[in-house]
Amino acid sequence: MILPIVAYGDPVLRKKAKDITPEYPNFDALLENMFETMYGAYGVGLAAPQIGLPIRMFLVDTEPFSEDESLSDSEKEELKGFKRVFINAQITEESGDEWAFSEGCLSIPDVREDVFRKPNITIQYLDENFESHTESFNGTIARVIQHEYDHIEGILFTDKLSSFKKRLISGRLTNISKGKVKVDYRMRFPAMKKKR
Q1: Is 141 in contact with 131 (CB distance < 8 Å)?
Q2: Is the full-model pTM beyond 0.90?
Q3: Which residues are known to be catalytic?
Q4: pLDDT tens profile 150-188
Q5: CATH of domain 5-188
Q6: How far apart are CA 176 and CA 189, in angstroms?
Q7: Can you give the residue ranges of every domain in the chain?
Q8: How, if at all, do strands 5-6 and 120-126 pair?
């Protein structure tokens, strides 16, 4: 089932998410619905807060990036085969010189900006079978993981922009929160309080 993606402005996107256990209700259905929702919106990642759940879970499937002609064959192959579920994740290390990459977000449609992130990470997480892993990633895969990880920490990519860039896009962000944006996937917009 394709779920609505929560739009910018919803408080759930600002909450630090909570750990879950294997007893989480209807976990298998949730996982299936999240993948279906991500693919339905042509995303490469989706975090539980983006569907309104403040839990520490996100998915990544970088295959769409494997079609980038500027990448080497080995990079394309790595991106093509990378599909993971991250539960109760903790990034334990970020290293290297920060590099810029144009990022977007399903919760912030039609906004893309260069974001600087470190190229190498080490992350501890549980997979969909609640088995523990500690792995290191780099490059585009690390960046997608960092973006989704930020969601479970209550951070959005727009938080990492300069104050000048934030001012430039503030009107667009307000419009998104009010539902004044066209998207080709289901979204849930925050209820705007009426001014008196």
Answers
A1: no
A2: yes
A3: 148
A4: 999 999 999 999 999 999 999 999 999 999 999 999 999
A5: 3.90.45.10
A6: 8
A7: 5-188
A8: unpaired
